[in-house]
Amino acid sequence: MSSRVVSIFSVLMLLLLPLSASAAERTVVLVMFDGFAPAMADATKTPALDRIKQEGAWSRHLIPVYPSLSLPNHTSYVTGCLPARHGIVQNGFIDPTLGKLPETADADWMTGCESVWQAAERQGVPAAAFNFWNRVSKTKGKLASIANEYKPWAELPSDEAVLTEALGLLKRTDAKRPRLIALYFRGPDHEAHVNGVTSPQALAEVRKADRIVGKLMGVLKALGDGREGTLIVGTDHGMMKVDQVINLPRIINRHGIRARDAGDGGSVYLYLEKGESVERVEKALSGYSHAFTVHRTGQYPGAYAGLGSGKRLGDLMLVVKPPYYIAGTDSFPWYAYWLGTSWFWSDTFTPDFGALAASHGYDTSIEEMHGVFYAWGAGIAQGKEIARVENIDVHPTVMHLLGLQPGNPVDGKVAADVLAVPPAP
C-alpha cells in the first residue's frame, strides 16, 4: 500500500471516530441562587449538590465583592469586574448625573465591563439570560440572543418557569441554540431574611434549589450528537443572623445632618448637601462606633478598596457591624419615618415587629457572607473541594470553559483549581 493510500486511509479512520471530549461542542449553564449560605446546605438534604461533591468541584467559600449585596455581586458574577469598574456600588446609590438608581434591569447603569452573555455574543456564540438584573439595556434592548423582558423583582417569572425555559433550550438541536445559558433564581434569600438562615421556610427553598440543580444535571448528562455540558452554580452572598436596627433617619435628624442617604443592610452612603461639613458629620457619627464605622470616599481600608473613589459613593460610607443592620430613609413608609425620626424609636433598637431575622452586606472577611459554589460536568475536576473561589473569577472561568476570551476589561482570573486541566500559563 502506497504512503498516499495510507494517508487517505488514516484520515478516513479519524473521521469515523467519535468526537473526543476536546472536540465536542460544549454548553455551559451558569446558575445563581440568591442568598445561598453554606449553612443552609448543611442543614437539609441536598442529593444533587452532594452528587456534585463526588463528581465535580465545590467550595464553601465563594467570596463576594464588597458590599456583599445583590446588585454589586450579580454584576461582578457575570462580568468578572470589581464595582469600581462596573459602577454598581450598592443596591441603591445616587449618580450625580442620572440620579438615584431605579428599580430597573437597565444595564446602561453599568459604567464598563461585559457580561458573560455579551462577551459570548461578541465572539459569535449565542447566549441566553433569564432574570439576571443586567440582561437588558434601555438603549440597546436585549443583550443576549434570548433574554426575558424586564419586570420588577416581585414580578419576575417564577423559578419553575425559568427552569422550564432552560430545559427547553438545552433540548434544542438547531444551529442557533445557545451554548451559554445564564439563570437567576430568587430563593432562598427572601425566606432567610424574614424567617432566619436555617428556618423551615429557607430550607424548603434550598431543597427546591437542589431539585433545580438535579434536573439541569440530568438534561446536561443526556446531551448527545457530539455535545457536552457543564454546570456552574453560585450565589451572590451569604447570610447571617441580625437583631439590632440602626435607625439612620433618627441619627440624621438628631445631629442635623444635611444629606441624602442611599443603601441599607450592611452599608449606606451619605451624599452631603452643599455647605455641609464632612468633618462635622464624621465627628458626629464617630459616637456610634459600637454599631458602624465611618469612612470618607477614597480613604477606604483594603477590604473595601474594590469600590474605588467614584462620585456614586457619595462623601461618606457607613460600614455596619453585625448583629446590627441599618435602616435607611427609604426603608420606612411615611408613618414609620415620622416615628423613626421622633422620640418614639431610638438611634439603635430591637424592633418589636417587622424585623429582619437575617441580613448581609457586611465585610466580606466575615465568613457568613461567603456563599456556595459548585461546578460539574465537562472540563471540571472530580471530587475536589476548593478552599475559596472569588466572585470575580466566575466570569473568566465560564468563558474559558466555552473556549472564548473573557470580556474586556476583566478583573478576575480563571479559577484553575476548579478545572480538570488547568489553563496553560
Q: Quick recap of the structure?
A:
This protein has 425 residues and is α/β, with parallel strands linked by helices. Helices cover 28% and strands 21% of the residues. The chain has helices at residues 3-16, 38-42, 47-55, 70-79, 83-86, 116-122, 159-170, 189-195, 200-221, 248-254, 278-285, 334-341, 394-401, and strands at 25-33, 57-63, 94-95, 99-100, 127-130, 136-137, 141-142, 146-147, 180-185, 227-235, 240-241, 244-247, 259-262, 267-272, 292-296, 316-320, 324-327, 348-349, 358-359, 371-377, 384-385, 389-390.
Word description of this protein:
The protein has 425 residues and is of the alpha/beta class. It has two domains: 272 residues, Alkaline Phosphatase, subunit A; 113 residues, Gyrase A, domain 2. The protein has 13 helices and 22 strands. Strands 1, 2, 5, 8, 9, 10, 20, 21 and 22 form a nine-stranded mixed sheet that branches. A four-stranded antiparallel sheet has the order 13-14-16-15, with helices on one face. It has a three-stranded mixed sheet with strand order 17-12-18. The longest helix is centred in the middle third of the chain and has 22 residues.
Class by helix and strand content?
Answer: alpha/beta
Number of helices: 13
Cα-to-Cα separation, first versus last residue: 44 Å
User: In which range does the helix fraction lie?
Assistant: 25-40%
β-strand percent reads 15-25%
Work out the count of structural domains. 2
**Uncertain segments:** 1-22
Average pLDDT works out at 90
At the first level of CATH, the class of the largest domain is Alpha Beta
DSSP E strands, number: 22
**How does CATH name the architecture of the largest domain?**
3-Layer(aba) Sandwich
Rg, alpha carbons: 24 Å
What's the quaternary structure here?
single chain
Look up the CATH topology of the largest domain: Alkaline Phosphatase, subunit A
Shape: globular
CATH superfamily of the largest domain: Alkaline Phosphatase, subunit A
Main β-sheet description: 9 strands, mixed
